[in-house]
Predict the structure.
Amino acid sequence: MLLRYRVLVSNSDTTGVVADENWWKEAVFYQIYPRSFNDTDGDGVGDLGGIRAKVDYLDYLGVDCVWLNPIYASPGVDNGYDIADYRTIDPTIGDMDQWERLLEELHNHDIRLIMDLVINHTSDQHMWFQQSRDETEPYADYYYWQSEPNNWESHFEDSAWSYDEKREAYYLHLFADAQPDLNWENPTVRDELYDIVSWWLERGIDGFRMDVINVISKAHGLPDGDPETPSLTGSEHFINGPRMHEYFNELADDGLGSYNDDIVTVGECAEIDPETAVDVTGRKSNALDMTIFFEHMGLDRNEGWESCEWSLSELKSIMQKWQETTEDGAWLSLYHSNHDQPRGLSRFGDEEYRYRSATMVATWLHGHRGSPFVYQGEEIGMSNVSFESPAQLRDVWAKNFWKRQERAGKDFEQVRDRIEEFSRDNARTPMQWNDEPNAGFSDSEPWIDVADDYETVNVAAQRGAERSVLEYYRKLIRLRDEDDVITYGDFELLAPEHEQVYAIKRSLQSADYTLLIICNFAAEPLTFEPPLSVDLAAEDVTVALGNEPDPALPPILELRPYESAIYRLHD
Ligand code: GLC
């Protein structure tokens, strides 16, 4: 097995870049939602064999590390985020033998693999929960049981508590009722979870993406929450809870152990602020290398699936705050799309200008400091889809949302816009490989409908095509391999108040150029003069990448609709 990044360069004299280089800071991650990626056993659900068949494609794209959404045994209420057995692969997705072959194949292509670690909750079908319902020891206190619920709300239901007839008590679930929260106060539970972590690391994986990891510690006694909180009622008692850092340090010592130096751990952290992100990535605890934050994802929506207006200057100020607060101590994952979010192209770009806006939004994201995550399909410009009837919904959150609306007397057409804008199903439609039936994803009817545009938006049509989103992503990813400034350079936001152009400067002491990243976020052309403190001569500027040929050169830029470019400004 040959892994390019095994040898870590630190305190490099030759490049003079920042001291704490790591493979994962230089990596572009690729997120695979296995059930929607590629089906090879003909059951309409993607599988491990399907991923293995596409390792060549991942290599072609140039990504460095794959994150797999959960593939463990699960009843599938939340598509695998309800785990019934942490050490078994779900039979619809494959088996351990296929998983080992996939890992080997990825490593043979210098691509690392991180697994999803869902340890805030299990499935209600997990043996622990079944035993807990019977109060069988040692499982009786593996979950939170109470004779009366408190007033906490769940993400996917109304109350965070459901009644269990067998135990004659209520159990806590911050997500669906089939996802009971584990009682982290119980040291035996924590030991079980650390064993699982070590078990997977021993199998040679390169790290974890940790699901909703900052809600594992709940306030002692589970007090009622403030019903006026803008977030879920009770969230002040479970987000970044009182023992979180203690648990994280324990997880680092007893779970990650000696692997912690080489692997990457990416923590999905609900409602986290930048200072806490610094705390959890080293200042106060050591389990996480980087955080997945959400603030930019909340820009276009209110609570409760209501959209709201947003402005580019607001997006800038959110990103700037995160970039600047985490400058010295923390690393961020950068994303505009994942399996929980509607497609970034539809939110931040414009489907009418698919090529240009998909590539512009990518340039914008990758232009920040952090590790970019590409979500399957993003690299070919997949967009949101339409749902003609509730029968097309698959996501537990969307289905529950619709059920509540129906109970309130609404018909589907009245809420269809909101569902089409926010449903997580938007991101989960099958990967579009070609223009054959089912987009080349499966020979049988897929578990979720294929998007209507697959005949034109697909990998086969874009591979090798000159002006394609896919080929642009390849160049953008390759740029990171070659350019330390884009990886490690300091971030400076230019023209923060400008409502149409997002302009970033990146600089690194050891480099003899700075990068200038320019993105036109609108369908209108415009003339823009980046506020640079130096006078530039034409020969000082080169184009590192642009989504149109021959972009205008600074100082005065004539920008086309959704045009973006990365310039090198030489000293
Ligand atoms: C995370 C996952 C999401 C899941 C939830 C509960 O936010 O990304 O898909 O529904 O946790 O596990």
Residues 1-19 have pLDDT under 50 and may be disordered. The CA atoms of residues 5 and 23 lie 6 Å apart. Residues 187-202 form the longest helix (16 residues). The radius of gyration is 24 Å.
